[in-house]
Amino acid sequence: MAAVEERMNSNPLVQPLLTDFYQITMAYAYWKSGKVLDNAVFDLFFRRNPFQGEFTVFAGLEECVHFVRNFHYSDSDISYLKTVMPSTVDEEFFTFLRGIDGSQVTLSALREGSLVFPRVPLMRLEGPLPVIQLMETSLLNLVNFASLVATNAARFRLAAGWDKGLIEFGLRRSQGPDGGLSASKYCYIGGFDATSNVLAGKLCGIPVKGTQAHAFITSFTPDEFPHVGKLQPVDKSQEPRDFYPVVCNWLKKVTPVLRVLESEVHLGELTAFSAYAVAFPNQFLALVDTYDVISAGSQDRFGRFSLSIKTYQAMPVKGSRCGHEIDTFGIGTHLVTCQKQPALGCVFKLVELNGDARMKLSQDIEKVTIPGKKEAFRLYGGDGRALLDLMQRCDDTPPSPGKRVLCRHPFDEAKRAYVCPSHVETLYHVYWKNGKICSPLPSLKEIQEHVKSSLTLFRQDHMRGLNPTPYKVSLSDNLYTFMHRLWLNHAPIGELF
């Protein structure tokens, strides 16, 4: 645990001033109204899965824990806030800000890398109302993009299959340095094997891989082909071999199989690939992104392909089901920028204050919140697959294996079913309480393994890319009744004239 507690958040930009200005002004209004000791419970959740899919990978938890752990305003922060807050703000408020931290906050969450679903809170924060309010924007910023990119990466992984290598190549087109680093980190969590981002490799321990730029390919000419150099055998005791006759020999063998003439092979490209193979005899990755792959120089049996793949339904990936010798894909822009859906849409809502449930009402049913401090459980069927996620009030009796439990749709009274689970998983774990980290924060590799194992616990029709089946999210009968009674009590009654 000591080693875990010594870990710091990796991004120096993650600090209390990484927030929206209205969080500061609301905190002042809370302070002015005498609400600084009010105990609040907030839920962080989303309303729809991204990419027209039916699952999301939860990511960003570790950064959130470190943010709460390190939360405090420095003297320079206070000095700056004095320049932007209205002149009518009491000086004592800035003294209040200078003294607050995250020690009175409790953070509970699902394990990072878990599959999560709409309306089920990813995180629950409990503590002083103004303090948690001041954390809202930063926490949303840390979870939204991380979960979106990790989900995108997981969908590419499912499409490519687990037997193929996936390398993230998106740094040069990502949204700035921080976007590039975050994307590399969370693509790895989502199932990618490596990144081209060297700094991400250094900071996060992610394997780094690379191919060649077109500049490298075009810098070689056919005249240089006979002078590609000597290749060092794997057995270092053997003398280096002249690589030129080896390439020529294999060229004669391969061209008939591929039904091309030797004269059609671009010797300049072949020279470039040969030179790169000489430089890296045991770690050769060839960039195959050309006008004519067959006629170019690369005719490896096992090729590492870097392609402009726009979606996980792209033909090169779908081709994995048809049989080919491509063993690695390098994917960049559409992976790290999530062009199909650039934002996840997590929200942060007050659900309880001083023990009383709070509920947001709206004419848009999607925006109605589920009130109160809740627990959540994942119920599994006899085949070991997840059946549904069940939310209930904290004082409800938890579901247990072998016992029937009534599960209700949050808004449709007619949709209900009894479930007799073979296994029940408690979803929330306390990660921060009383100023201490309470649960170990796993390594990126461990989170990646958790994503992989989680993807196997759900039916394939939930995971598929086209027309997936929605996964059920239910309420206990007690929570359903409580929610709808509260709704009726607070919803205004209209009058007709």
From TrEMBL:
<keyword id="KW-0808">Transferase</keyword>
<keyword id="KW-0328">Glycosyltransferase</keyword>
<dbReference type="GO" id="GO:0004516">
    <property type="term" value="F:nicotinate phosphoribosyltransferase activity"/>
</dbReference>
<protein>
    <recommendedName>
        <fullName>Nicotinate phosphoribosyltransferase</fullName>
        <ecNumber>6.3.4.21</ecNumber>
    </recommendedName>
</protein>
<dbReference type="GO" id="GO:0016757">
    <property type="term" value="F:glycosyltransferase activity"/>
</dbReference>
<dbReference type="InterPro" id="IPR013785">
    <property type="entry name" value="Aldolase_TIM"/>
</dbReference>
<dbReference type="Pfam" id="PF17956">
    <property type="entry name" value="NAPRTase_C"/>
</dbReference>
<keyword id="KW-0662">Pyridine nucleotide biosynthesis</keyword>
<keyword id="KW-0436">Ligase</keyword>
<dbReference type="GO" id="GO:0005829">
    <property type="term" value="C:cytosol"/>
</dbReference>
<dbReference type="GO" id="GO:0034355">
    <property type="term" value="P:NAD+ biosynthetic process via the salvage pathway"/>
</dbReference>
<dbReference type="Pfam" id="PF17767">
    <property type="entry name" value="NAPRTase_N"/>
</dbReference>
<dbReference type="InterPro" id="IPR041619">
    <property type="entry name" value="NAPRTase_C"/>
</dbReference>
<feature type="domain" description="Nicotinate phosphoribosyltransferase C-terminal">
    <location>
        <begin position="373"/>
        <end position="482"/>
    </location>
</feature>
<comment type="pathway">
    <text>Cofactor biosynthesis; NAD(+) biosynthesis; nicotinate D-ribonucleotide from nicotinate: step 1/1.</text>
</comment>
<keyword id="KW-0597">Phosphoprotein</keyword>
<dbReference type="InterPro" id="IPR036068">
    <property type="entry name" value="Nicotinate_pribotase-like_C"/>
</dbReference>
<dbReference type="InterPro" id="IPR007229">
    <property type="entry name" value="Nic_PRibTrfase-Fam"/>
</dbReference>
<comment type="function">
    <text>Catalyzes the first step in the biosynthesis of NAD from nicotinic acid, the ATP-dependent synthesis of beta-nicotinate D-ribonucleotide from nicotinate and 5-phospho-D-ribose 1-phosphate. Helps prevent cellular oxidative stress via its role in NAD biosynthesis.</text>
</comment>
<dbReference type="InterPro" id="IPR040727">
    <property type="entry name" value="NAPRTase_N"/>
</dbReference>
<feature type="domain" description="Nicotinate phosphoribosyltransferase N-terminal">
    <location>
        <begin position="17"/>
        <end position="144"/>
    </location>
</feature>
<comment type="similarity">
    <text>Belongs to the NAPRTase family.</text>
</comment>
<dbReference type="InterPro" id="IPR006405">
    <property type="entry name" value="Nic_PRibTrfase_pncB"/>
</dbReference>
